[in-house]
Design brief:
There is one protein chain. The chain is mainly alpha-helical. The strands form 2 sheets. It has a two-stranded antiparallel sheet. Helix 6 packs across helix 13, helix 10 runs antiparallel to helix 15 and helix 11 crosses helix 15. It has 3 domains: about 70 residues, no CATH class; about 210 residues, Cytochrome p450 (Orthogonal Bundle); about 50 residues, no CATH class. Helices cover about 60% and strands about 5% of the residues. A hairpin with a 2-residue loop joins strand 1 and strand 2.
Length: about 400
């Protein structure tokens, strides 16, 4: 035991020093507050409420919903100098996220998923910054109105028909058909890219793998470096720093997902053989010669369309089929409305949407019944705030 201890003195000192420095920094941060924190479980010495976080594999929304029963509509946990405020009430969420959006609109730091893997540059994880506002400005310019988006309605009609044909031919592969259809629509809108119609598409598979990696990378409590950010400075070969090797591999996959379709569109535009798309539109607006910042924004906003919508849309459509299987009476009423309004030998289009109120209600109820992201996306408090005599401290 002595030999092992003496053989790694520098490594052990570095690791211990990082941990002690972080703990000292957390414990010495000023904790002035004009009001008490929201109620919550009593923190333990040093680790705070670390053990009160969801366990690996546990559904987060189920865990945090229990806090509503125990502590009320607004609760909190604290660890290592940081506080997580949990909102379990619609009115509270509206008061803070909508009415005080300037204070509550930023995003928390995700060290592993954001900084090591690289997801911090995706729109949904951007902090409330100049770059975030530029992202939104560029997206709105091309896709920000119903009139602009209606250009892609014929595309969606075509892909829906291809989807139905695939389901008819291979009904046992429903989820894969949904993934193919969603990938086809979003990649066409973002890049003008036509997927492989009769099998798996390499770009769809690449993006899906990146999304699967993110689902693990962004899971709270999975990566110690998210709790102790100083660990990100450890070398990849250091014992216990295997997360860096994993992160670098996933980063390479993500950057390939971002870069490959971007370069494809640029090449097609140089050859004059490109299809209309979001990326083609923003490149045309910069006359094919974007600045480094414009190129960065163009690249990541285009990718955000797919990476932010692919898995969520697949989930919503899958839930719709589940709902129709569980509630056949609703399915019969929906079919009756389509047959009565559209006719038995024709598929509905976007032009028929306003004439199908029951279908509209079914879609909305499916989204309410099983929301894609029941936890939403975490927000960051940028200024100390008090709500109904309860303090929401600014993140340090």
């Amino acid at each position: 035991m002595v030999a092992v201890t003496m053989s790694l003195p520098t490594l052990g000192s570095v690791f211990l020093g990082l941990v002690l420095l972080y703990l000292a920094q957390s414990m010495l941060l000023p904790k002035k507050a004009s009001a008490p924190l929201p109620p919550g479980p009593k923190p333990k010495p040093i680790i705070g409420n670390l053990r009160d976080l969801p366990r690996p594999g546990q559904q987060e929304w189920v865990h945090w919903l229990q806090f509503k029963e125990l502590y009320g509509p607004i609760s909190s946990v604290s660890m290592f100098g940081q506080t997580i405020v949990v909102l379990n009430d619609h009115q509270v969420a509206f008061d803070l996220m909508e009415k005080r959006s300037a204070t509550y609109s930023s995003r928390p730091r995700m060290v592993f998923a954001g900084e090591i893997v690289g997801w911090a540059d995706v729109l949904g994880l951007q902090g409330y910054s100049d770059r975030f506002r530029l992202y939104r400005k560029v997206l709105h310019r091309v896709l920000g109105t119903k009139a602009l988006m209606s250009r892609f309605n014929p595309l969606q009609d075509i892909e829906v028909r291809r989807f139905l044909l695939r389901v008819l031919q291979k009904p046992d592969d429903l989820i894969q058909h949904i993934r193919t259809e969603v990938g086809a629509v979003i990649l066409k809108i973002a890049y003008g890219y036509n997927i492989e119609p009769n099998g798996r598409d390499p770009l769809v598979d690449l993006a899906n793998e990146a999304m699967e990696n993110f689902s693990v990378a962004g899971n709270p409590g999975t990566w110690l470096v998210d709790t102790i950010p100083l660990l990100r400075h450890l070398p990849a070969w250091f014992p216990g720093a295997g997360f860096k090797q994993t992160g670098y591999a996933w980063r390479k996959k993500l950057l390939t997902t971002i870069e490959k379709p971007y370069q494809l569109v640029k090449q097609q535009m140089r050859q004059g053989s490109y299809s209309p798309s979001y990326l083609a539109s923003v490149l045309e607006q910069s006359e094919g010669k974007p600045t480094a910042e414009e190129e960065f924004v163009n690249k990541w906003t285009a990718a955000s369309l797919y990476l932010g919508g692919a898995d969520t849309t697949v989930s919503s459509l899958s839930c719709f089929f589940l709902a129709m299987a569980l509630y056949p009476d609703v399915q019969r009423k929906a079919q009756e409305e389509i047959d009565r309004v559209i006719g038995p030998n024709k598929l509905p289009t976007f032009d028929d949407r306003e004439k199908l109120p029951y279908i509209e209600a079914v879609v909305k109820e499916t989204l309410r019944w099983h929301p894609v992201g029941p936890m939403g996306i975490p927000h960051l408090v940028t200024e100390d705030d008090v709500y109904e005599a309860i303090s929401s401290p600014r993140a340090h």
